[in-house]
Automatic annotation (TrEMBL), chain A:
<dbReference type="GO" id="GO:0030674">
    <property type="term" value="F:protein-macromolecule adaptor activity"/>
</dbReference>
<protein>
    <recommendedName>
        <fullName>Centriolar satellite-associated tubulin polyglutamylase complex regulator 1</fullName>
    </recommendedName>
</protein>
<keyword id="KW-0493">Microtubule</keyword>
<comment type="similarity">
    <text>Belongs to the CSTPP1 family.</text>
</comment>
<dbReference type="GO" id="GO:0034451">
    <property type="term" value="C:centriolar satellite"/>
</dbReference>
<dbReference type="GO" id="GO:0005874">
    <property type="term" value="C:microtubule"/>
</dbReference>
<feature type="compositionally biased region" description="Acidic residues">
    <location>
        <begin position="323"/>
        <end position="333"/>
    </location>
</feature>
<dbReference type="InterPro" id="IPR038968">
    <property type="entry name" value="CSTPP1"/>
</dbReference>
<comment type="function">
    <text>Regulator of the tubulin polyglutamylase complex (TPGC) that controls cytoskeletal organization, nuclear shape, and cilium disassembly by balancing microtubule and actin assembly. Regulates the assembly and stability of the TPGC and thereby modulates polyglutamylation of the microtubule, which antagonizes MAP4 binding.</text>
</comment>
TrEMBL record, chain B:
<dbReference type="Pfam" id="PF14580">
    <property type="entry name" value="LRR_9"/>
</dbReference>
<dbReference type="InterPro" id="IPR032675">
    <property type="entry name" value="LRR_dom_sf"/>
</dbReference>
<dbReference type="InterPro" id="IPR003591">
    <property type="entry name" value="Leu-rich_rpt_typical-subtyp"/>
</dbReference>
<dbReference type="InterPro" id="IPR050576">
    <property type="entry name" value="Cilia_flagella_integrity"/>
</dbReference>
<dbReference type="Pfam" id="PF12799">
    <property type="entry name" value="LRR_4"/>
</dbReference>
<dbReference type="InterPro" id="IPR025875">
    <property type="entry name" value="Leu-rich_rpt_4"/>
</dbReference>
<dbReference type="GO" id="GO:0034451">
    <property type="term" value="C:centriolar satellite"/>
</dbReference>
<protein>
    <submittedName>
        <fullName>Leucine rich repeat containing 49</fullName>
    </submittedName>
</protein>
<dbReference type="InterPro" id="IPR001611">
    <property type="entry name" value="Leu-rich_rpt"/>
</dbReference>
Length: 333, 781
């Protein structure tokens, strides 16, 4: 953590850049909110727990949206939690609508905005037929790009729009969220006959954007890789390519590779435990009171569970199953 | 009496021929059998026991002193024949209907009513006859066997007449027989003439008989009434049993009081304009289909229209003296105008086609009616028949020939009152139902408006709502008939409707509590009787925002402890997390979420989520379908991890706060029953454990209503702002300290060197330094 470059910045700026302030603020805020409870077991204990959970990425559970999107770490944590919690839905093979995915998101974050979900769906569905069903993996990867890089994508949309209309994008890139969103929606319908913009020029603009942006951007090398494979491309084509790019997924580090998306052995074990309890119990007491199914996972010990390590290092082995690839109807191209 | 029994239909009949006017006269026919043995004068002939008496008394002073008595004695057999004939003719029907004694006056003795001028005695004016019910105007006719007073004995009529009367058959082509009576006969029966059974096909020209008062053409074949217009004193005209097709030739007979046209072929009542004094009109046994042209007969007392083709009775006004109306054996289905007859006492409607009291409702309005027959009508088969009739016609003294007792009347009125109450009740019910329908329509409309306002966000939603609202509006079309309208008109219309109708509805029907409209939720604060509350098993919410329902769920738990089935329709359940709120109910066995107005039902996962989240209730049915073991396992498979993650990975302090918060909130609920802010929804862990053991890990999955959530976010924002400034200050301070520290660190070596240098310089000259030190010491002292 203590990289030498910290000395190159004045303290507060450094702290802000590293989002330390965000967490400190939040910690104090949480402390205030729960001061009665916390006072029972000590403030030191609280801070330990808080920063532990931040490290593990569980701090975003059921938190408000403004906090969840506050830092890249929070976003990644949220993505990861979402994946873990609803992997079973994907495993079951259900294809769901935007609204339904949104509901799932809301189970974790009650005020999660519909807009974001819809944008993600637009990536999957190439901006048409918004009521289509989507596979879990398609949605998840698109959602990852949209959620994690949302500010970046807005800038990209603005640039793309400018390129389409022939302006020199380098002069005006101060995207505000509203304008960017607006234009991005219009983009595909205004496609020129040539469909999209020239890839190299586009990359050029994006590169400078990445250099200047204070928000997180995908590694420019990977962007270059995406853009170099084609001559021209549309906005959603670009987003789709980003969503499907393994490198970016890895760089982001929140989700496993696509092939491994449905695998999570530790959780599967837990699930098996749960299932055996449910079925076992309800078989023994077919219609009786649901009684004590209840008291199951007494938290074993106040969490020694493994801190979150990037997944793809752990699970490189399994790549055979690719079951979820293109289940979504209109997801191609 | 024996005779009566042997010939039941042959009851006494009486037509009270009213002696109106100055010259009222009495016509009375008494079957002589009743006279037999009675007082009165003995019959002049031995066979008289079967004869009939006809007494006509004129009111003229001269005649009053020596009233004529006409007595017809017929031989027994012929009378019997006649009776039998009548029996056949009216067959069984006469049994009840005709066997009435209208007036007991003339029963066993011949009565001489002294002076017809005695108008008060009108009821005594009787025309009695043995053969049939004259009062009913019998389906028989009046047998006026007014032969000349046959002192010579009672021979059969035919030869008798031929003895005294000579039909002069003129040679003229017209071939009207001309009748001449012998002089002595004329003197004897100066005012009467009987031409019974003469096989006449036309009316003979009657010469020199202008003073004639009574004329009898019974049992002939006359087809047309003619040649009698000169008989201007005629009072009584009997044309019973002829073949007359049209009433005519009577316009000059202004004195005519009794006109008997029974058993003819008349199709239409007509040409009676001048017969203003008509007292008795018998038209039975004809082919009349319509009552008409009689409204001017203000003196008419008896009208017989039995055995005709009437199907409606109307046009009776003007018959101000009518006391008796016989309408037996028609096809009457309904009647009116009866209430315009001020004197009507006897009404005979037997053997018609009346099936409902409503069709003869005018009877109830008649104040004079005291006797009525309705037997042989469909209505008489009904169980309520007697009670209804008696109840509606309190003035009735006889119904279907039976005297009505007080007891019957009382029972009838009780029964009828009951009936009426029942009717009123059912009317009330329908009113209530209608009101309910209107109210629900109104609520639905309001709901739609509300939804439209809320859901203007997405156009697709909008379309759907529009179509929905149209649907609802169409169903309530009676209020707003126009079907296509803009939102604005809907709005304004509904505001109108609002003032008229309630905006909510609460209803307990059977074991179901229906709540329509958000206002209905307030009813949960009401004190429900223990019994009612106990019977409610199903609670149905309609047109209520789910968030509002959430706030009253704890109350539901308390008020309706037995409710195990929740129904939601048009409640705006959009997300899965809303189902979290239901976990706080005491018990749910069935859950019904109608797709209408609850988009969540379109999700493939909703059922599993419900099963998962409400696992502790052991739900039996969701939307009517049985929950299987597989469903439960599937639900667990899909969402089990979520619960696991929630419970095992949440930091301790948050876990406490999430549960604790709800505990706190619940506490608030208890304190202030109507906590406005108490939107938070989750289980109090103790409570849930006691009730049925809800998973602690699931309890974390709770639902906060939108309102409360924004409130909470607001709170968080404020706190965040504070924390931000606080931390900024802290950091700034820390950074300051750090900077100072750093600069100190930087300066210190130099400072140290300087200090050392100063010290060294100071002590370089030992003596002077010593001196200095000593000096300091002395100075200190």
């Amino acid at each position: 953590m203590l990289s030498p470059e910290r000395l190159s910045l004045p303290g507060p700026e450094y702290l802000a850049q590293r989002h330390v302030l965000t967490y400190m603020e939040d910690a104090v805020s949480q402390l205030l909110e729960n001061r009665e409870d916390i006072s029972q077991y000590g403030i030191a204990r609280f801070f330990t727990e808080y920063f532990n959970s931040v490290r593990q990425g569980t701090h975003i559970l059921f938190r408000e949206f403004s906090f969840i999107q506050a830092t890249p770490h929070n976003r990644a944590s949220f993505l990861r939690t979402f994946w873990r919690c609803f992997r079973a839905v994907g495993k079951n093979g259900d294809l769901l609508t935007v609204k339904e995915y949104h509901c799932l998101l809301q189970l974790l974050c009650p005020d999660f905005p519909m807009e974001l979900t819809q944008k993600a769906a637009r990536i999957v569905l190439m901006d048409d037929a918004m009521d289509c069903l989507m596979s879990f993996s398609d949605f998840l990867f698109a959602f990852q790009i949209q959620f994690y890089y949302s500010e970046f994508l807005e800038s990209v949309a603005a640039i793309y729009q400018d390129l389409l209309t022939g302006k020199n994008p380098n002069t005006v890139i101060v995207p505000t969220s509203s304008s960017g969103q607006h234009r991005s929606r219009l983009a595909p319908s205004e496609c020129s006959p040539l469909d999209g913009v020239e890839a190299s020029l586009f990359y050029h603009c994006l590169e400078s954007l990445c250099d200047r942006s204070k928000y997180s951007c995908p590694p420019s090398a990977l962007v270059k890789e995406v853009l170099s494979s084609v001559q021209r491309l549309t906005f959603y084509g670009f987003l789709m390519a980003l969503a499907k790019h393994h490198g970016i997924n890895r760089a982001l580090g929140a989700l496993p590779d696509k092939g491994d998306l449905l695998l999570d052995p530790p959780m599967d074990q837990e699930l098996e435990k749960l299932l055996s309890q449910v079925s076992g119990l309800s078989i023994s007491t077919p219609a009786g009171s649901s009684g004590d199914i209840a008291n199951l996972p007494t938290r074993t010990s106040p969490r020694i569970s493994s801190p979150w390590k990037p997944l793809h290092h752990r699970q490189k082995v399994n790549t055979e199953s690719d079951g979820s690839t293109d289940e979504t109807e209109s997801s191609e191209n | 009496m024996a005779t009566r029994e042997r010939f039941p239909p042959a009851k006494e009949e009486a037509v009270a021929a009213r002696g109106g006017g100055r010259s009222g006269r009495l016509v009375s026919m008494v079957p002589s059998k009743f006279r037999a043995g009675g007082g009165g004068r003995p019959g002049p002939s031995p066979v008289n026991n079967c004869g009939l008496h006809l007494v006509i008394q004129t009111s003229s002073v001269a005649e009053r002193n020596k009233p004529f008595e006409f007595r017809v004695n017929k031989d027994q057999s012929s009378f019997h024949n006649r009776l039998l004939q009548h029996d056949l003719e009216k067959n069984h029907s006469g049994k009840q209907g005709d066997g009435r004694l209208l007036t007991p006056l003339v029963r066993n003795k011949q009565v001489y009513v002294p002076v017809a001028a005695n108008l008060a005695d009108l009821s005594g004016l009787e025309l009695k006859q043995g053969g049939g019910c004259l009062s009913a105007f019998g389906d028989s006719s009046i047998h006026t066997p007014t032969k000349s007073r046959t002192r010579q004995g009672c021979h059969s009529a035919g030869p008798n007449i031929s003895d005294n009367i000579h039909f002069g058959s003129s040679a003229s082509i017209t071939a009207f027989p001309i009748l001449h009576r012998a002089a002595d006969e004329k003197i004897l029966n100066s005012d009467r003439l009987t031409l019974e059974r003469q096989k006449l096909t036309v009316c003979p020209v009657i010469d020199g008989e202008e003073h004639l008062r009574l004329l009898n053409f019974q049992h002939n074949f006359i087809t047309r009434i003619q040649n009698i217009s000169n008989l201007q004193h005629l009072v009584f005209l009997d044309l019973y049993d002829n073949q007359i097709e049209e009433i005519s030739g009577l316009s000059t007979l202004r004195s005519l009081r009794v006109l008997l046209l029974g058993k003819n072929r008349i199709k239409k009542i007509s040409n009676l304009e001048n017969l203003k004094n008509l007292d008795v009109l018998d038209l039975h046994g004809n082919q009349i289909a319509k009552i008409e042209n009689i409204n001017h007969l203000g003196e008419l007392r008896v009208l017989n229209l039995a055995r005709n083709l009437l199907s409606y009775v109307e046009n009776l006004n003007g018959l101000d003296s009518l006391t008796e109306l016989n309408l037996r054996h028609n096809q009457i289905t309904s009647m009116k105008d009866v209430d315009t007859l001020p004197c009507l006492q006897h009404l005979f409607l037997s053997f018609n086609n009346i099936s409902s009291f409503d069709n003869i409702l005018c009877l109830a309005d008649s104040s004079s009616l005291s006797d009525i027959t309705l037997d042989g009508n469909p209505i008489a088969q009904e169980t309520w028949y007697k009670n209804t009739i008696l109840h509606h016609m309190m003035q009735l003294r006889q119904l279907d020939m039976k005297r009505i007792t007080e007891e019957e009347r009382r029972m009838a009125s009780v029964a009828a009152r009951k009936e009426e109450e029942k009717k009123r009740e059912s009317h009330k019910q329908t009113l209530l139902k209608e009101k309910k329908r209107l109210t629900i329509g109104n609520i639905a409309r309001q709901w739609e408006i509300q939804q439209n306002r809320v859901a203007l966000v997405t156009s697709s939603n909008q379309d759907k709502k529009d179509s929905d609202s149209c649907q609802i509006n169409c169903s309530a079309a009676y209020v707003f008939p126009e079907e296509t309208r803009s939102l604005d008109t809907i709005l304004s219309n509904s505001v109108q409707g609002l003032s008229v109708l309630d905006s909510h509805l609460v209803e307990v029907e059977g074991d179901t509590l229906y709540l329509y409209g958000s206002g209905a939720l307030e009813s949960l604060d009401r004190n429900w009787s223990v019994q009612t509350a106990g019977t409610v098993i199903t609670v149905s919410f309609m047109f209520i925002e789910f968030d509002e329902i959430v706030q009253v769920l704890p109350k539901l738990k308390i008020r309706f402890p037995n409710s195990v089935h929740l129904k939601f329709k048009e409640t705006n359940i959009v997300t899965l997390q809303q189902f979290n709120a239901l976990a706080q109910v005491r018990r749910i066995e069935q859950l019904t979420v109608d797709p209408q107005g609850n988009p969540v039902v379109n999700f493939t996962l909703w059922k599993y989520y419900v099963l998962f989240r409400l696992n502790h209730f052991n739900l039996q049915k969701i939307n009517g379908t049985e929950v299987t073991q597989n469903d439960i396992v599937m639900a667990e498979r899909l969402f089990g991890i979520l619960a696991h993650v929630a419970s095992s990975e949440l930091p301790q302090y948050r876990l406490l706060s999430l549960l604790g918060e709800s505990r706190k909130k619940q506490f608030c609920y208890m304190l202030e029953a109507k906590g406005k802010k108490s939107g938070i929804v989750s289980e109090e862990s103790n409570d849930s454990r006691r009730v049925g053991g809800e998973n602690a890990n699931r309890a974390i999955l709770n639902y906060t209503t939108r309102e409360f959530h924004t409130e909470k976010l607001e709170e968080i924002k404020e706190r965040k702002k504070f924390c931000q400034t606080y931390i900024q200050d802290l950091v700034k301070e820390a950074a300051d300290i750090n900077m100072k520290n750093e600069s100190l660190q930087k300066l210190w070596p130099q400072m140290f060197i300087e200090l050392v240098r100063d010290a060294v310089i100071e002590i370089r000259n030992k003596n002077s330094y010593m001196k200095l030190c000593l000096q300091r010491i002395t100075d200190q002292k």
